[in-house]
Design a protein that fits this description.
Helix content is about 45%, strand content about 10%. It is built from 13 helices and five strands. A five-stranded mixed beta sheet has the order 3-2-1-4-5, sandwiched between helices. It is elongated and about 90 Å long.
Length: about 350
């Protein structure tokens, strides 16, 4: 309600309470015109109809907000509505207006307190950084990112290892553990091969930080056995693995409230399992053409957009050939030649 409407509302309530007062006098005191007041009064049916429509639209917004129990912002709500059956089209401006009107707030992400957590002792092995932050240039199943995060609960920690497709944002493999033994990281790679091995390419890389799990002899050996190329971030540079870090941050924001009631590791694992299913299948993302990661992967494969909308987007295409991944850039190659010649 704008300022003028508020004034007219006060005048109307005052006149209803005291019939001896005149409209002219009240409008003069309030500094508004009689014509404006009467125009506002005559528009009452239209305002009532608008209020009823707002309520109906907000009910749809609230239903989308509550799906699977995970809070959503305006963009996530719009994408959720598009996936309803039948699809609901509602613009972002209206969604944001109604969220403000009815005080529906999506929690804002906090900084990840685990990003700078120190790693344990390492071997001397450090793989080259083949990726160089080109996360989305090579198409599906070429750039895979992996990392470990700590999940605090009841004064203790659970641990989560994931492998994320940098292009489709799918979580292709994940393993939870109640200890930091290296084997749970190896299990993540084994699950990747078992469930997605046929879709991997000869050029596929698995990119990580320089933590002890990824420099261990066992991890290096399993990558060689599975014919996966290894790539590593520069030391202490979390931006070299940014999409994986971002996934952990959003996940913790979504499940943080549920974790507060956990007293056992099994409860934490159940919450993570539920979130992974939600994320891959129903966590719609703006940069993925408003699709979930699994939907986006199918869109990449088939070229068929799954939503019935006007002017559907074109099928995604890789900017570079997978054969180029890990090749030195032109300026780097020229610098190398110049160094060799001096």
């Amino acid at each position: 309600m704008n300022e003028a409407s508020c004034v007219f509302q006060v005048i109307e309530e005052t006149l209803q309470a005291d019939r001896t007062l005149s409209v002219t006098a009240m409008c003069e005191i309030a500094g508004v015109s009689r014509s404006g007041y009467y125009a506002w009064l005559n528009a009452a049916p239209a305002r009532a109809a608008q209020e009823e429509q707002d309520r109906k639209d907000f009910d749809l917004i609230l239903k989308a907000y509550k799906v699977r129990g995970y809070a959503k912002g305006a963009k996530s709500i719009q994408m959720r509505l598009l996936h309803e059956d039948p699809s609901v089209t509602m613009n972002l401006k209206k969604i944001r207006r109604l969220m403000r009107k009815y005080n529906l707030v999506c929690p804002i992400r906090r900084a990840n307190p685990y990003r700078q957590m120190a790693k344990a002792l390492k071997t001397s092995h450090v793989a080259p950084n083949l990726l160089k932050r080109e996360f989305e240039n090579y198409g599906p199943r070429v750039v895979l990112l992996t990392d470990i995060t700590y999940i605090p609960y009841n004064g203790r920690f659970a641990y989560l290892s994931t492998i994320l497709d940098a292009y489709t944002k799918q979580i292709l493999s994940y393993v939870t553990s109640d200890s930091l033994e290296v084997d749970f990281v190896l299990e993540t790679v084994k699950k990747l091969i078992e469930e997605h091995g046929l879709s991997l390419k000869q050029e596929t890389i698995l990119h990580s930080d320089q933590g002890s799990h990824y420099t261990s002899h066992k991890f290096i050996q399993i990558l060689e056995d599975k014919e996966l190329r290894q790539s590593m971030s520069r030391r202490g540079n979390c931006w070299d693995n940014a999409p994986q870090e971002s996934f952990f941050g959003h996940m913790k924001d979504h499940i943080g409230g549920s974790l507060k009631g956990c007293t056992e590791y099994a409860q934490v694992k159940a919450i993570i399992d539920d979130y992974m299913d939600y994320y891959n299948n129903e966590r719609y993302q703006w940069e993925l053409a408003k699709l979930s990661p699994n939907e986006y992967y199918q869109f990449c494969l088939t070229g068929e957009y799954p939503l019935d909308v006007p002017n559907p987007p074109a099928a995604p295409k890789a900017e570079k050939s997978p054969q180029c991944l890990g090749c030195p850039k032109k300026d780097e190659a020229e610098d190398t030649v110049e160094t060799e010649n001096t």
